[in-house]
């Protein structure tokens, strides 16, 4: 997006966010965080990326990047191989040969947090249940170091082909890909996987920006409800596919509790063998602006264990995101 940011203080220059979404922000964003969240909707964000060990040597890729700019990318504390650049460097990074051939992958820090929570290990059998376009899948593949088995599922044909093409470009062509409805995978592969990642299809509220009103053109409270119904089916399928003792990470790029805590609450109510695990991010405190998951919504008390889940707030370097880590009893 090439639209310039407005001058400082000129927040009214851009079209307002939908009234229903503003009401949601009022309900889920604490007052002391509101100003920074509002700024995030009118300012271009920093760009995060990771070096991809599946395509070349990260050290060589890093050297090539530094040779092409007077402003080297900044390393993300605590996470080797992850860097950020300022908004003005987005075109340079996007069109760099290393981005084109897969030696680096541009990916939001909030999105990476789901993979950090999953903590994939070499030798495991892992499922990515809603995998397209493949950014998280390829990150999981890199962390598995070519050991184990990774399955990626996508039900939409066009997105499935995009997934396969991206994985091939990123050196993850060994990932087993399936054009399949994720809601039935649990029945087809019961208790098979050591870890399951469900970055669920959602209302995409994290994509909103006042710089581009089209970013919310297809959003509505009805879409939130429709997304939540699908998410409830997917999380049940993901749970069925998980081995006893295994870990399920559920995430969305939505702020709506209906798509986040309430979806997890539904699973917890049905599965007494499910527990919520605290998420320890590899970054130092404060790098990612986070809040605990909600334990109350619209006067309804929620499972107190949901406080162990994480809400990543929108900021000048992060998008809105929700992550919950669940463990199935052994």
Automatic annotation (TrEMBL):
Limits of the SAM-dependent MTase RsmB/NOP-type domain: 37-329
CDD domains: AdoMet_MTases (cd02440)
InterPro entries in UniProt: MeTrfase_RsmB-F_NOP2_cat, MeTrfase_RsmB-F_NOP2_dom, RCMT, SAM-dependent_MTases_sf
Keyword S-adenosyl-L-methionine found: yes
GO BP annotations, alphabetical order: RNA methylation
Keywords, ordered alphabetically: Methyltransferase, RNA-binding, S-adenosyl-L-methionine, Transferase
Electron transport keyword on record: no
Positions contributing to S-adenosyl-L-methionine binding: 130-136, 154, 181, 199
Gene Ontology terms, MF aspect: RNA binding; RNA methyltransferase activity
Active site annotation, chain numbering: 253
Family affiliation: Belongs to the class I-like SAM-binding methyltransferase superfamily. RsmB/NOP family.
Name the UniProt record assigns to this protein: 16S rRNA (Cytosine1407-C5)-methyltransferase
Protein species of origin: Tepidicella xavieri
Organism ancestry: Bacteria, Pseudomonadati, Pseudomonadota, Betaproteobacteria, Burkholderiales
């Amino acid at each position: 997006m090439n639209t310039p940011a407005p001058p400082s203080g000129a927040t009214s220059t851009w079209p307002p966010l939908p009234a229903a979404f503003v009401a949601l922000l009022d309900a889920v964003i604490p007052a002391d965080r509101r100003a920074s969240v509002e700024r995030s909707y009118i300012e271009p964000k920093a760009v995060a990326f990771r070096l991809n060990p599946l395509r070349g040597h990260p050290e060589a890729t890093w050297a090539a990047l530094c040779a092409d700019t007077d402003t080297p990318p900044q390393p993300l504390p605590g996470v080797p191989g992850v860097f950020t650049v300022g908004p003005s460097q987005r075109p340079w990074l996007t069109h760099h040969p290393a981005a084109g051939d897969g030696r680096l992958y541009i990916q939001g820090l909030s999105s990476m947090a789901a993979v950090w929570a999953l903590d994939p290990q070499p030798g495991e059998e892992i499922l990515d249940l809603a995998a397209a376009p493949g950014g998280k899948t390829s990150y999981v593949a890199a962390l598995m170091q070519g050991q184990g088995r990774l399955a990626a599922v996508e039900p939409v044909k066009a997105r499935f082909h995009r997934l396969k093409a991206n994985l091939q470009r990123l050196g993850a062509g060994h990932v087993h890909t399936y054009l399949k409805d994720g809601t039935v995978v649990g029945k087809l592969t019961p208790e098979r996987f050591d870890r399951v990642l469900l970055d669920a299809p959602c209302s995409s509220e994290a994509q909103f920006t006042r710089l581009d009103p089209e970013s919310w053109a297809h959003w509505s409270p009805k879409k939130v409800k429709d997304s939540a119904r699908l998410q409830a089916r997917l999380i049940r399928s993901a749970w069925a596919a998980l081995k006893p003792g295994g870990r399920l990470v559920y995430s969305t790029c939505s702020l709506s509790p209906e798509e986040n805590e309430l979806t997890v609450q539904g699973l917890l109510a049905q599965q007494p063998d499910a527990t919520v695990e605290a998420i320890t991010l590899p970054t130092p405190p404060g790098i990612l602006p986070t809040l605990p998951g909600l334990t109350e919504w619209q006067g309804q008390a929620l499972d107190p264990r949901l406080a162990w889940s994480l809400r990543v707030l929108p900021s000048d370097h992060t998008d809105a995101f929700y992550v919950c880590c669940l463990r199935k009893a052994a």
